[in-house]
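Question (not urgent): is this output format expected?
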Amino acid sequence: MNRRWTLASSVAGAVVVALDGTVLTVAQPRLQRELGASFAEVQWTSTAYLVAVASLLVFAGRLGDRYGQRRVFALGMLGFGAASAAIGGAPGMSWVIGLRAAQGVFGALLQPATLGMLRATYPPDRLAGPLAVRTAAIGLAAAAGPLVGGALVTGLGWRAVFFVNVLPALVFGLPALLRPRRPAAGSRTALDVPGAVLLAVTLSCLVHSLTARPASGAGLAVAAVTAAVLVRHERRTASPLLPPAVVGSRAVGAALGVLVVVSAALFGTLFVATYVLQHRLGLDPLDSSLRSLPLAVLMVASAALCPVLLRRYGPRRTTAGATALLALGVLALSGAGSTPALGCAFALLGAGFGTVMVAATQVVVRQAEVAVAGVAGGLQQTALNVGPAIGVATATALMGAGTATALLTLAAVGVLGVPLTRALPRADGEDDGVLPATDGDRAPAGTGGDRGLLGADGVASITNTADERVHGGVPGRR
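Got this back:
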């Protein structure tokens, strides 16, 4: 496959997943009425998918590194399409929920591979352009989703929103399956199944606890315990699921933190904005969608502009400025009442989020070697699944105090991302060292000597020389 087809496949995979989520929201009321479902069952059509996809993203990325990104992309794309078709023909609500969980499994295979394929196909200095195209396409899908979903549900019924995934799954999944690409050299390491199980339990408990109403304290406690066990396991195992070359990078950790914070602020804000527009201002759903349209427009425009900003200002200043812009948009929305003020606030949100998506994702994917690009993609996607869950949970908890209080708090959450950007590279293309392990937690043989996970005492990072940097978990020269 050439670069254009790889980019088209990556965009198609990302758009199918993004569009599926937005059109489902429109279809849920009709689905509930025709299948005689309760509100709790309808909520599980979203929760089952979110839990499945969030818990498996990183392990799915590792599978792509081991067996080939295109092969895993093909399996994810074709499986996603097959699960969608099955949901469209489901006879009852229990079938819909179960198949949505299966769809989440295939979505987890699909999403990291869309980034891993780009990393394996494009040289590092040309990654920003493809990532900008991918982000802009996601923005368009988010804007078109309610319109497409509304048209399909009105004209053909709720089942049609799932059948629409079948054709792109076949068009892009079959060629990738028939022409797989060999995995990167050095990627045939043993799979860390215990680590994958611990991470899956941690993330599934976290996401489910945050999406439950009210949030589950017991689930959060289980997530904390399994996370601690996971850290201990990863430090001791010979073939960790989370390679030190990825999770030990200060730049990657900061970029993932920014993605979590920014997506939490945005999606929490959008949750509150629905009540602001429809309850406080008395707008109907269509008018509300039109008021928020500048968000999608500016997200697409800012994604297209981001490669230029990265070349001129570097990831650090670009991401910091965009994060502050998004926080300003949340703040502006808290006091907006007129149409121009609302449009300006949503435009700031879109411009900030679109830029951060490209800039932070580029740091995560570029800093990782090709042999671990799938894991990096899985971590990026995990951040974008956990962040919204945190944001919506925060917004829900604060709604009782008023929408203004909730939005001001979410603006503060967005501001937390600004200091994180100090760990990002100053210039586009600047490499980042990995954090050293403590004496008691040295990295195992084959993972870069002493450079492993951050020790418990918080040892400061170091910048390796060109001959000492860790690439894909093994030392190498450039």
